[in-house]
Predict the 3D structure of the following.
Amino acid sequence: MHVLQHINAINLRFFIMSTIKKKDTYELYDNVRVMGMDYSEGHLGDDDFSLIISKILHPKERLPYTYSLFRSTLFTIGIVIDSYGSMKYEDITVEIKPNMLFMNKPGDLQELHWEEVTETYGLLFSEDFILKYAGISIYEMFPFLLFERHLPLHTSSEFQQELRAIIQLIHQELKKDSPLKKKLCANLLTRILLKIKQEFWVGYSVHNAQSRNPDILNDFTQNLEYHYDQLLKGKVKQVLHIKDYAEMQQLHENYLSTILKEKTGKTAGQLIAEKTLATAKILIQDSQYTMKEIAFMLGFSYTSYFSIFFKKHTGMTPLDYRKQSLLD
Amino acid sequence: MQPTNLSTYKDQIEFLKLSYHDYIDNDEFSIVKVHEWNLTFPFNSPTFRSDYYSFTIVTNANGSFTVGDDKFELHPNHVVLACPDSYFKIHWTDMEKVYNIAFKKSFILKHFPGGIDNIMEFNTKNGYCCCLTEETMNYFEQTCLEMHKIATSELCFKNDLMANMALNLLFLVQLEKENETDVKINTSKNNKIVVDFRQNIENNFNELAQGRCLSVMRIREHARLLNLDENYLSKTISAITKKTVNEWINKKLIDEIKYLLKNSEKSMKDIAFLYGFNDLNYFYSFFKTQTQSAPGIYRKLHQNT
């Protein structure tokens, strides 16, 4: 399931769906290589974190260009310094003009169209990446990424300059091969997010998001994130099921599932499983817990169920994962 | 001369009889332009002990830092990170431009937890000093100026931003360190046990130095404090750090003793008792096995030079 989702997003993004076999497409970076050497400079990084330099991916002869409808599997920040085009979401189309900032969360459905590209950057990252290398939880530090819709934010050109300077540092870092590459990238990415938070979301908290934007998906994400946050901190012991999440919003579980599937392309079960997996990874890296404790914390009645679940999604047993993260 | 314990940066500034700026309202983090203090040269600070990291960017100045058993010579384009919980002494012969960033570990944990392993990596020694290229120093200076601007501003989330920028510089210093020593950086040493264990050693030695504690903690006490089995603790520490529990403790112990031998007038007996040796002969033989020289000889050798 995991592999398939990756392939979908990646292939749609690059229009090379039919040409490559499953195995070759697992790494995002490989895809760009398929596009030819000319373009590999335009997309630097790996599955967890990458930088897109749109000018290189879209030279004049390849414009106008439309990506087919895709669901992002990662968080995306688009920094439009000077370009024109349009971005279509499920229900709304917005024009892309200079001095704009776009932010998308995983699961957002979108269609991107470019008319003219002079200077635009895209940052793609996973929740895991920022947690692992910066130790920062998106839910706690940058909740606006999860709960707000980021139709374009208009920015001053001074602010764009500030962001551009950081992007340039990221670019340099991605081209080098230093042992602290990931940490430095996570550091700079956090700096960008902090600047955005400073500029647009001062005083924002999860609580005022809810009242402003009653939305089934938002509420579900919020309940899910909150619950797993509490689990990690050891404040709650039991695990919730789809039914419990549905009841929190006074909905029927089938209805909740349908809505989630429509909006994210994933069922509630999948979303919960993904969150469980992410939480498991954090707990495993912290060697103060035994596998048995972790399995129990996450609601598995037997350690073996947990191992099977973990192996199914990562291809690795929990113990191997711990060993690897210790030796890395 | 009795070394003083200073816990906050404000204390240090008061201790050094310097004026401090209003914006240092935070006990956990501060950035200052040292050259704006108008020190009189040559400047010599008394010895003190701090519980914060002191990260100094020497754009243009000459002097030296003595941290524990190590002495770092400072010249233009140098940066130096001094780790907490060691005896610390500052000397400047002249100065044109120097920035100092002081921070506590708790500050990093709060604002950029991903950097904590990297900081701890520096703790294997009392500090680290290196020379940067002109270009890199330029970047360091720009970042310092930007941080200073943020520090004096009224912006929201300024602590998060400053922690972020300080760590960025520290990562770069760590890369320099790696180039120099050819030691592989262990990037995901995300191990709570190691971090806690090392913190407990530091705490123990701070208490010893203040006379609030009478014996050096050994593996049994460490294991008990961490709620772990002795064997498990010992295995984990050796596997991850490639140094045994005793090596960690003895290294720190010898380091502190050496410092007192060199820089204080304390008698052997006082030093031995300070670190929980009940028998002076045992103290001598311990020192000799660890350093290949007798404490008396060591003291003579270093006080003469």
Summary: The longest strand of chain B covers residues 87-103.
